[in-house]
Known about the structure:
By secondary structure, the protein is mainly alpha-helical. It has four domains: 10-24 and 39-150; 174-232 and 276-407, no CATH class; 426-445 and 481-597, Tetracycline Repressor, domain 2 (Orthogonal Bundle); 617-800, Methane Monooxygenase Hydroxylase, Chain G, domain 1 (Up-down Bundle). It is built from 26 helices and two strands. The chain is elongated. The relative contact order is 0.03. Component of the exocyst complex involved in the docking of exocytic vesicles with fusion sites on the plasma membrane. It comes from Chiloscyllium punctatum (Brownbanded bambooshark). Keywords: Exocytosis, Transport. This is Exocyst complex component.
Amino acid sequence: MADTAALETVTEHERILQEIESTDAACVGPTLRSVYDDQPNAHKRFMEKLEARIRNHDREIEKLCNFHHQGFVDAITELLKVRSNAGKLKVQVTDTNRRLQDAGKEVINQSEEVIRCRVQQRNIATTVEKLQLCLPVLEMYSKVREQMKAKRYYSALKTMELLENTYLPQVYQYRFCQIMTENIPRLREQVKEISMSDLKDFLESIRKHSDKIGEMAMKQSQQQRTFNSIVKKQTNTSHERKLCIASGMVPDRMDETMLEQFQDDEEEYEAEVLTAQDLVDFSPVYRCLHIYTILGDRETFENYYRKQRRKQAGLVLQPQSNMHETVDGYRKYFNQIVGFFVVEDHILHATQGLVTRAFTDELWNMALSKIIAVLRTHSSYCTDPDLILELKNLIVVYADTLQGYGFPVNRLFDLLLEIRDQYNETLLKKWAIVFRDIFESDNCSPIPVANEEEYRTIISRFPFHDLELEKQPFPKRFPVSQSVPEIYKEFKEFIYASLKFSESLHRSSTEIDDMLRKSTNLLLTRTLSGCLQSLIKKQHIGLTELVQIIINTTHLEQACKYLEDFITNITNVSPETVHTTRLYGLSTFKDARHAAEGEIYTKLNHKIDEFVQLADYEWTMTEPNGRASGYLMDLINFLRSTFQVFTHLPGKVAQTACMSACKHLSTSLMQLLLDTEVKQISMGAIQQFNLDVIQCELFASSEPVPGFQGDTLQLAFIDLRQLLDLFMVWDWSTYLADYGQATSKYLRVNPSTALILLEKMKETNKKNNIFSQFRKNDRDKQKLIETVVKQLRSLVNGMAQHT
């Protein structure tokens, strides 16, 4: 066992020695550690083994050195020989080097010169190369300056952009390039400021020239409208001309002459017409737009431009305070607005996005509302129909002009309908003055004509047809006064004036016909009716004049159908159309006649009152004068002559006037008898009064106005007749016995009326018969009167209780 362990230890030590010999010195540590980790005292045996190995190696080294020692000696000998040769060689090399250095000094000097020249050449080449890079930069910068000086700002910006993006990056390291780089933003701002200044000048320029631009645009539109109107008229009349030629008649060349004249005028106008581009230089706005687009600030420019144009629109839409006084004020106002929107339309189509259709529509809607409000306000101050008509024509041209540029103008034509109503009102006021002047100058007497020419002149002015009048010899008279044909002529003038406003309103013939008829109805029902009513109410108008007014209104009423035909011929709208408005002449003139008739009745009664006030009865007279009173005879003569004038009146009017006059006369006479200031009435006064009533009855029976049947007119005096008969016959027994019966002889005698008159007679009898009371007849009569008075009082009281 011991031998075996020793053998293993020896083997292990051999392995360790081999590892030490073969491994690197840095790795010997772990190998040596294994020596100490084995059996105790193993390291001693290992050291012994190691020393034996060292000795073994020393012996091998010694053997090897002994084997090579001679060769080493020989080598040393050879080396000593080489040493001596090396010394010689060194001397030779040193000498050669000295000689070579001496010979190369000149070459070195020339080489240094060559090197220096080549460095200079390289520097020059580099400099030329850099200058070639810098020169375009400098040229471009100089070009920018020249373009700025020449006000070619758009080109200058393009050059700056090329300089900044292409050239400067190639030479960015130089200081002057840095200075240029810093200057370019300042140059751009300078360009922006200059272009903005140009834009402001442009805005000021278009503000000044808007009036002229609008004037030219409206003139062009007006010419186009006139040309279209003439062409349309020629088209409508071409068929008539063909018929004229076919029938051998010479066609009217008036329209052709007008068209040729218009074409000549148009050619002359086109030679001198100026457009917006001719009056205003739009290049500043184009240039400014391009500049701001290049600078990436287009939105700022667009906002500024639109803001400024909105402000200018507000200024343009602000009218002058006295604009309504003359048509030139309206024309200037419209010219400015048209000029403004013509410029905007040009900008809209000439630029891309500077203004949009939405922006122009917004401006137009704002402007349209303002324009309508301004026109509505200022036109309300206008009292001259000619000025309103000119304003209407201006509005139509204005609307047509802007409609040609694509702006909606329907609200303007709606406004024209409002102005049309005001125009009609001013026409009505104007014609009210005309009618009043006609009535003032009218002599209210039939028109005399001495010959056929005068007769035809009147017929041509007024549609009057009367076969009887035509058969009468000259001189003769029309039943109407001079005012009738003049008024009828003014009717036509009014219709023409009203038609002028309806032209060019883009309305149908039916609508125009309706407008004319409505305005004519207003002329009849308001203006003429008011003038007639005022005329009738005037104090100086007498019965003859009132009669003539009734005759005039009758013929004017009959002429209304001719006015309807006149309107139909103008508008070519058949009167049978369902919605055609009719003229209200019947009601207008009927009202005027009623007013005149009422005024006749009033004035006639007033005249009767004036005559009756002249009555001077002696109520206590004992015997009558034997003849009627003078005032009454004068009154009857007046009535007779007056009713003769009524021969031209309609029958019922004359009969009503006559009956009204007789009734009023009867009532007035009755009031004379019953007057409270008359305290006493004698039988002689009653008999005298009876004579006057008899004259009235004779007048009534003489038929002062034809058409009464029997004694109808005499019945106006029946109350007086029965009352007077009662007192003169003294038939009280019959009156009292038959009172209340339909067959009573004194049916129309009121007990209260009889009582009042009887008491007045009673008082007269008392004063006249103071000493006759002793006579039996007088006493009996007095008693009878008292008895009748008592019975009448009882009747009156019974009537009062019954009521």
